[in-house]
Amino acid sequence: MNLIELANNIKTWGKELGFDQVGITDVDLKVHESYLQNWLDNGYHGEMDWMARHGMMRARPEELLPGTLRVLSARMDYLPPEAQFASNLKDTHSGYISRYALGRDYHKLVRNQLKKLAQKIEQEVEALGYRPFVDSAPILERPLAEKAGLGWVGKHSLLLNKEAGSWFFLGELLIDLPLPIDVPKDENECGHCVACITSCPTQAIVDNKVVDSRRCISYLTIEYDGIIPLEFRKAIGNRIYGCDDCQLVCPWNREAEITQHADFHRRNEFDDAHLLKLFSWSEAEFLERMQGSAIRRIGHTQWLRNIAVAIGNAPYREDYIPALTERLGIDEGLDEHLLWAIAEQKAALNNVPNVDRKKQRLIRIVEKGLSRDA
Q1: 0.70 cut: is pTM over it?
Q2: Which residue out of 135, 176, 225, 263 is catalytically annotated?
Q3: Which residue in 152, 177, 226, 330 is a FRET match for 68, CA 20 to 30 A apart?
């Protein structure tokens, strides 16, 4: 078997299957073990207990699939057309959704293509041990991708690529073939730029390539289902699912190309992302509209929680407080955020010039109702 030829074929097949780049590396991540342990010791993983549960397995791919010799790291670009960049952040009555989640859930799509790639390889060899992963196993995907030549890890801890910036998904295919490995060509090109660090609304990037998840808006709105700490609620603004701020300011993202995958284009449901419209969805509507979306997994209550915080941060509108009040009593944790948002809307009302008595009367009625419920 000509392993060099096979490695070249694998990259060609990867392109045919929709990947924008495929690199090959070994499984040696020992240099990252101390970094990983320090990150866990500092509690930067927050309540993502599985991070600590698997320990150093993340830096040892061969423990996931005994006999693994190589990792195929694959990149699939997702930047959608009409991504609207930061315009949604400026429209404080609309919800901002992280770009990666505007379209179809990438997990199954990328994993299926990795499996097809493995099957192509399998046709060329006598036997192949393999296992595909897309955020589905304890593995350090970015260090592996960096070793495989897909780019470099930026100061925001995301992988950066000269062609795609950081707007791409990563997937890994573990195999037991001793293929020739790729030598990274790109050195770290971040230089003295600290735009990602200074732009983070919650100062979650606590050191070079180190993110404290407990402060990260993506963690708080997606991975964390508890009471969002008061100190972060104002900084969340109108970000109702994830946050792209550190990517939006990155110079390497300015020239990133639009994805060729229609699956990652903006869903019709988000053409009008007004907070009240999204907040009005019943649980059944939420599940139906978010079918096939990564957003579906946070559940309806957390969806309402996130939007409630955004409404609390929005300028006053007379229809916000009644909408918030109507949701009270569904869930104790949700109530905490609803009451906070109501209080914030009342405070915003005081800043509205020439408020008529009718609006003031509405607030008094709502206040009486809340105190009676309490």
Answers
A1: yes
A2: 135
A3: 152
